[in-house]
Amino acid sequence: MRGYAESSxxxxxxxxxxxxxxxxxxxxxTPWLEKVQRVGEFYWLLKTQYYxxxxxxxxxxRSKIIQPMRLRNVHNxxxxxxxxxxxxxxxxxxxxxETVVPQLTIGDGxxxxxxxxxxxxxxxxxxANVLTADRVFISDHSHGFSDINVPILQQPLKSKGEVxxxxxxxxxxxxxxxxxxxxxxxxxxxxxxVLGDVPDYCVAVGAPARIIRRMNPESGPKTxxx
Length: 226
What we know:
CATH architecture: 3 Solenoid
Distance between the termini: 24 Å
Strand content: 25-35%
Number of helices: 3
CATH superfamily: Hexapeptide repeat proteins
Strand order of the largest sheet: 1-4-7-10-15-18
Helix content: 10-25%
Number of domains: 1
Structural class: alpha/beta
CATH class: Mainly Beta
Radius of gyration: 19 Å
């Protein structure tokens, strides 16, 4: 369950530290199909650094946003250093209140998978080195539906709280994270629907998500009785 189709963060750091001539020979030795893909990615790196960054709240060095599907109110979005946002991302912030300016933050070294949908009306914080697989949905709000006489589409958005995802966490494919806090170095399983908080070093799966394993950095993993 990979989070994106590029090299791993560890490999990326190694390549970044290579002398230029070694990078050239490494590129030359790759198959032609990968060469074409890398040239395309280099285009998006240039577009991110020399075009997008004039409109976004902040975009750090070496970060690239590859062929996004839709972007809205990006002046409220902060992107750290060496971030990759893969193809067809939908990133949106909406100011629903005059007193609350939405803030969407993606930390250094994150890898955001293809077709991720991240929506914010208050605050969404994604920590450093978070990995998300494809088709992940992250939001600090939902549609109101309390008035049965009004179409849900026409009812106001409601936030049940901010979203924070701790550094080093891995979000699996098709997962939904809504108005909750996820700790550092957690694993969220594929197709999980996370509606409540998940502490540090936990594995959570299911809909709604439940914790099935707690990991202690000193003593190792521990299975939770169901």
